[in-house]
Amino acid sequence: MNTKHMNQMNLKNNFKKSALLLAMSAVFSMPVMAIEESNKATAEEKVERMTITATRSALSVDDALTSQLIITRADIDVINPISIQDLLSTLPSVDIANNGGRGQTSSVFLRGNASDATLVLIDGVRVSSATSGGTSFNSISPEMIERIEVVQGPRAALWGADAIGGVIQIFTRQLEGGEHFAGVSIGTDEYRKYKAGIGLSHGNGQTTVTVSHERAEGFDVKDDGELDDDGYKFTSIAIRGQQQINADFSVDWLFSNSEGDNEFDGSFQNNSDINNHAWLVRANYASEFSDVKNNTVFSVGQNRDSSRNFSDFEFAGTFETRRDQFSLVNNSQFSDEFQVNMGVDYYKDDVSKSTTQYDDEKRDVTGAFVHALYNGEVFSFEATARHDNVSGVDSENTYNLGAGYKINDDSRIVLNHGTGFKVPTFNDLYFPNFGTPTLNSERSETTELFLETRLGAVDTRINFYYSEIDELISRNSAGNAANFDEVVIKGTELSFNLVATGGIHDLNLSYTDAKDQATAEDLIIDVNATDEKLVRRAREKLNYKFTTSINVADLYAEYKFVGSREDSVFGADNVKLGAYQLINLGLNAPLTKNLVLNARVTNLLDKEYQTANTFFTQGRALYVGITYQNF
Predict the structure, then answer these.
(1) Fewest C-beta in 10 Å: which of 215, 368, 475, 501?
(2) Is the dihedral of CA 528, 534, 536, 541 positive or negative?
(3) How far from chain centre, in Å, is Cα 152?
(4) pLDDT of 72 above 80
């Protein structure tokens, strides 16, 4: 950490300590309530947990034959995250690599897979970049999120391209008519956030509008002699609504827009202006024929991912993806146990607005799938098949097979096997002096076995998975994109949840062994030998979360251990990034019926660590806010 950054941190210590003491004293001066009340909300949430991402139709999480993780609005409120990465990093087998702090480029590795091998959706809209393949999580404000569903393992047979590592679907906030909130937060590095939301009723429907603006001066993010702070600012709005036309027909819609800028260190660019939007209109029709209940969903939408880059305050270029999307999905419920989903997806990628000249600027992708699910009292079975045609690349066939056995009311064992693929990005194919137009799609094959059971008062889950990825896209010794064989990823996840008198205890441990089998002569980024670990992925990861209520305050504590990783250095041996441990704290405390104090402390012990070579991370940070809400 450079001297300037250390001095800035020392100057802010008094502010942190004073604000933290103020927050805690406000909590413990309140009337004492029974601590047994701490778990009521969580117990109610566990009564009915539904998922859409696992099968593309509403289904109980307990019936889904896939690894499913859900982050609820209640989780978000108690954690008080600054970014969506704060939420995802609490999950097993999720690694986050940040090129600095908030506002900088970040990568999310799900079960050791590349960051662009996980499909990211917002209310069903694909939001990744067709040029880089990545997703900008920075512009997604936690205040605008209702819940997050994470499906681990290949789901390409349902969702198509890029769902090798899994699917992350973000659902935007939904408030009842008349509900509203407004708040302000301040924090370390001159952090400021303003947020507001309101629910509007209109007949048999409602619309939620949420807005958020945040900014910070930041800190020096890179060890390169450039000592300036690297700040950011983002402004986001989301409009999510639904209207029931009659008993059988409804329409829902989404519009979201995020814009802002962030500053970088390095020779390639110094700052970027970001302007992203997504919109969706979806029609839902319920019908019944010959005792078969059907639900048909048609949606049309668009996503734009755009960044204007500057170097030394001079315009350096634009990268922009425009993606038009259509889908038609029908769910047929033949009985309480058996259902069939069928669907067609189409989307068109257009990168013609980018200043980089690509040999081909547009691409059509069309996919069709059929999915059958049987959930009996003891046995469950699932089968999915899909065909995708990708213009300019090739066609792909994928499938999923799953089987579950219910041992008793509290235990089940599930085995599933599936394939997936990832389409080369426009940069992979056509970027000047890098792209290779003859690239094939990456292809994966994954087998997973998991057991869910209850040991006494502890909900327990253990997962084993094994993946092989062929035609891996990386750089060859000439610096060009090329396909390689193969990557092998194997791992184990162990999760425990205990609801006790003292509070809620969540513990997850994961071991991820992701290795590249390509030869050292072929891959410039792996110059030592074969069987190299994939960069920026830790083998060992542990996360412990404790939530409780004292007086009328919700308290949250998190301990995180992330093992050592390797990172690449162009043309040289990989470097080792050391293991690190973090402690984060959260607080939600009602001051009055409608006024809530919220606070978060990150990196409580002020540890120095790196998740990407040569990039600093934030030291101890404190954030305190006040929110007015009527729900």
Answers:
(1) 501
(2) negative
(3) 11
(4) yes
The alpha carbon torsion through 10, 12, 15, 16 (nearest 10 deg) reads -80
533 DSSP β-pair partners? 515
Contacts of residue 381, Cβ cutoff 8 Å, sequence gap at least 6: 65, 372, 373, 374, 402, 403, 404
Question: What pairs with residue 194 in β-bridges?
Answer: 184, 213
Which is nearest to 370 in space by CA: 386, 346, 382, 347? 386
pLDDT at 121: 96
* Triad 363, 369, 370: Cα angle to 5°: 175
Tell me: pLDDT of 580 over 80: yes
d(CA 21, CA 238): 35
Q: How far apart (Å, rounded) are the C-alpha atoms in residues 340 and 363?
A: 30
Instruction: Say how far apart CA 432 and CA 428 lie, in whole Å.
Output: 10
Let me know: does 254 contact 125? Beta carbons within 8 Å: yes
Radius of gyration of the chain, Cα coordinates, nearest whole angstrom: 24
Closest CA to 450 of 421, 419, 415: 415
Side chain identity at 360, as an amino acid letter? Answer: D
HEC readout, 245-262: CCCCEEEEEEEEEEEEEE
Is residue 301 within 8 A of residue 269, CB to CB? The reply is no
CA distance 354 to 318: 5
Chain-wide mean pLDDT for the chain? 88
Chain segment 248-275, per-residue pLDDT in tens? 999 999 999 999 888 877 655 567 888 9
Q: What is the DSSP string of 12-74?
A: THHHHHHHHHHHHHHHHTSPP--GGGGGHHHHHHTT--EESTTTSS-EEGGG-SSEEEEE-HH
pLDDT one-digit tens code per residue, 393-452: 889 999 999 999 999 999 999 999 999 999 999 999 999 989 999 999 999 999 999 999
Contact 425, 378 (CB under 8 A): no
The torsion angles phi and psi of 177, rounded to 5 degrees, stand at -55, 130
Residue 377 burial (C-beta neighbours within 10 Å; 0-12, 13-18, 19+): exposed
Predicted confidence (pLDDT) per residue in 339-356, tens digit: 999 999 999 999 999 999
Amino acid at 463: N
| pLDDT band (50, 70, 90) for residue 582 | very high
Residue 474, both tokens: 């990386």
CB contact at 8 A, 589 and 552: yes
* Superfamily of domain covering 3-629: TonB-dependent receptor, beta-barrel domain (2.40.170.20)
Q: Is the pLDDT of residue 369 over 80?
A: yes
Please give the pLDDT value at position 223: 81
Instruction: Give the mean pLDDT of 132-158.
Output: 91
The SS3 assignment for 4 reads: helix
**Interval 78-107: pLDDT, tens:** 999 999 999 999 999 999 998 888 888 889
- For residues 603-628, one letter each, b for 16 or more C-beta atoms within 10 angstroms of the residue's C-beta and e for the rest, the string is bbeeeeebbbbebbbbbbbbbbbebe
Average pLDDT value for residue range 533-556: 93
Q: Which of 410, 491, 416, 417 is nearest to 458 (CA)?
A: 410
* SS (HEC) of 105-145: CEEEEECCCCHHHEEEEECCEECCCCCCCCCCCCCCCHHHE
Q: Are strands 249-263 and 230-244 parallel, antiparallel or unpaired?
A: antiparallel
